[in-house]
Design goal:
By secondary structure, the chain is α/β, with parallel strands linked by helices. The protein contains 10 helices and 9 strands. The strands form 2 sheets. A 7-stranded parallel sheet has the order 1-2-3-4-5-6-8. A two-stranded antiparallel ribbon has the order 7-9. Strand 1, helix 2 and strand 2 form a beta-alpha-beta unit. Bound molecules: iron/sulfur cluster.
């Protein structure tokens, strides 16, 4: 069987296989809503949030900030046990809003509660690149010596004109600074990108990927742009549908193949698409679950005999 640079037969460096190698078995991510808000909503950076954002569209039903971390982990394990039996290793995923947006003492309390739960082997902390600081990174660095710890930065785009347009409230330079600080502390980090943001064409997206592939990050997630109910983007789309390019599944997978070919083969790909809750999703409605989308993507890689990093020329490529 053909094996790729990452040591297994899948044509991209996939997350479950990586965990399989690291922990010797499946690790289930359990989302947590720890009651954070976000500086782009409470006025310290902006109001109204990023134009695409409605956290309810992604939060599993068991995640409610009124519940303790322990209760959310318990219910998350129960929720996932219906699909996956016998898993006894878990990753506490601080997912909703900006999960470093509080004082260090409060963050320590929340993260420590999660790590004390039986079977929790690590933390994934979703945040904005402008909500990280040295002292927190120092503490996360210490934690990384005992647990798997990953900071996930929503960088969304590498173009400031796009970040302005989606009211992100930070720049790409902020992202570079946070990534650099995190790398210097030796902490694992991931980035999240949205493919198809307003104003970006395919050439912008593919050139951006060369830049992204040079970053000192380990993990990456991709989401297609989705129009979600009760967002500013939904209002924009209703008024001017032509202002937003929405990809069909076929177009998106074709673009993702070209993205994956340019992507640094060392990056672990956590996701190639998003799956907002159907009650919240306006468009595009592809009518498939994530595993079905992934299967189509992998079939396409196979049929085209291509793989992650096939066109990656190295970190020095300009
Ligand atoms: S995407 Fe993140 S940063 Fe933007 S409004 Fe939503 S929670 Fe805040």
């Amino acid at each position: 069987m053909r094996r790729f640079a990452w040591g297994h037969a899948r044509r991209f460096n996939s997350y479950p296989e990586y965990f399989q190698q690291l922990f010797g078995g499946r690790v289930q991510k359990l989302s947590i809503d720890a009651g954070f808000t976000c500086p782009n909503r409470d006025g310290s950076k902006g109001r109204g949030g990023c134009t695409f954002c409605n956290n309810n569209a992604f939060n599993p039903s068991y995640c409610q900030p009124e519940k303790s971390i322990t209760q959310q982990l318990e219910e998350g394990i129960e929720f996932h046990s219906k699909r996956y039996r016998g898993i006894n290793k878990f990753m506490a995923y601080f997912q909703a809003y900006t999960n470093t947006y509080n004082h260090l003492d409060r963050l320590k309390t929340l993260y420590s509660e999660a790590l004390e739960y039986p079977g929790v082997v690590g933390l994934a902390i979703g945040t904005r690149p402008d909500c990280i600081w040295e002292e927190l990174l120092d503490w996360l660095g210490e934690l990384s010596e005992k647990y798997y710890v990953i900071v996930e930065y929503g960088i969304e785009s590498c173009y400031n004109k796009t970040l302005m347009r989606i009211n992100r409230g930070h720049t790409f330079e902020d992202s570079l600074k946070a990534i650099d600080m995190t790398a210097k502390k030796g902490i694992r980090q991931g980035i999240h990108l949205i493919i198809g943001l307003p104003g970006e064409n395919e050439s912008d997206i593919l050139s951006g990927m060369k830049m992204i592939s040079r970053l000192p990050v380990q993990n990456i997630k991709f989401h297609q742009l989705q129009i979600i109910r009760n967002t500013n983007l939904a209002n924009e789309y209703e008024k001017k549908p032509d202002s937003v390019k929405l990809y069909s599944l076929k177009e998106y997978l074709d673009l993702m193949i070209r993205i994956i070919e340019l992507l640094n083969p060392a990056f672990i790909v956590e996701r190639i698409a998003g799956d907002a809750h159907p009650d919240y999703l306006i468009k595009p409605r592809w009518g498939l679950r994530y595993d079905e989308i992934l299967k189509k993507f992998e079939d396409l890689l196979e049929n085209r005999d291509t793989w992650q990093g096939k066109r990656f020329k190295g970190k020095d490529e300009r």
